[in-house]
Design goal:
The structure is a single chain. This protein has 187 residues and is an alpha/beta fold. It is built from six helices and seven strands; from the N terminus they run E-H-E-E-E-H-E-E-H-H-H-H-E. Helix 1 packs across helix 5 and helix 4 (135-146) crosses helix 6 (166-179). The two termini are 26 Å apart.
Length: 187
Amino acid sequence: MQEIRFHGRGGQGTVVASVILAKAFFKAGLWVQTFPVFGVERRGAPVEAYLRLDDKKILIRSNLYAPDHIVVQDAKLLDTADVTKGLKQGGWILLNSSKMPDNLAKFKGFRLAMADAGQIGIRHRLGTRTQPIINTAMIGAFVRILESPPIDMLADAIREEIAARQEENVAAAKEAYDSVQIIGNID
């Protein structure tokens, strides 16, 4: 079983990202389970969403405590939350950022990748310049670093789940897939 934890803020589409990715993995033939965890339900408040994947039925019904990978939709969360808590050694950290984090020591033992999802969202006219919609770009980058599910299955899941600006969201996911910066192991 693989477990993925998403960190974001209310309004960034963190929960929607986990649902779309779950649908894409389901299309690829895996069993999936996804659910959110909210603190204060308001725009800008920290949000977590969880996704489990397995080739057999998933019977566990608890939060994720030792994820294999994490997706961080807001790099500012690195300053306020322990996003790597419980992350398994060698796990991927996908960070929405255009620049390397200041303190790489906190990522020692993990693999790092970065996508400038904010700029991708702006280029595809998703959201506004001050609050771009980044979730589809982030999951496009994520399927690239995991090398699964196929990008076409992700595109189909985006079209099924997103009601407005479907092709712009698909294009954002594909751009992030093509442009994600894979740093790799942090020693």
